[in-house]
Amino acid sequence: KHFRIKTKAAVAGVRGTQFFVSAGPKKSPNDTWVCVKKGEVEVSHISGGKTRRVTAGQGVSAFSKTKKVSQPKALAWTKKINWNMSTSKGSLPNNISIDDAYSDLLDVDDD
C-alpha cells in the first residue's frame, strides 16, 4: 500500500511510521516542512524536480518561491516536536511554532 501527502509545495511518499508535515506560517503558507523520526519519506516539489529521501532524524523544506526541496539534514527545531501518539503516554498537543523552522534557513542547501 502507498500513502502520499500532497501540499501546495510538495508531495511526500511515506515509507515510515513516524513523520511530521507542516505548512509554513501565515507569511509563507505554501511552504512545506517534513521531518522523520522513524522510517523514511520521499519528498519532491509539487512542480517536479529532484526527489529527496528523508530518513530518521532528518528534515527538509519545500519552498513555493524556489520550487525546490532542500537537502535532508538534522533540523534543531524538530527536537521540540511531541512525537507521542498515545493518550495513555501523556499529553498529545504539539506546542512548537513553525516559525522556529525559519531560524534554520541560513543552513539550508537548496542545490
Task: Characterise the protein shown here.
It is a single chain. The chain has 111 residues and is mostly beta strands. It has no helices and 8 strands. The chain has a 4-stranded antiparallel beta sheet, with no helix packed on it. The chain has a 4-stranded antiparallel beta sheet with strand order 3-4-7-8, with no helix packed on it. The protein is globular, with a radius of gyration of 13 Å. The model has no long low-confidence stretch (mean pLDDT 81).
Count of alpha/pi helices: 0
What distance separates the N and C termini?
31 Å
Give the beta-strand count. 8
Largest sheet: 4 strands, antiparallel
Mean pLDDT metric: 81
Spell the H/E element sequence.
EEEEEEEE
What oligomeric arrangement do these chains adopt?
single chain
Percentage of residues in strands: 35-45%
Radius of gyration: 13 Å
Question: How is this fold's topology laid out?
Answer:
Elements: E1 4-6, E2 10-14, E3 18-23, E4 32-38, E5 40-45, E6 48-55, E7 59-63, E8 68-69
Antiparallel strand pairs: 1-2, 2-5, 3-4, 4-7, 5-6, 7-8
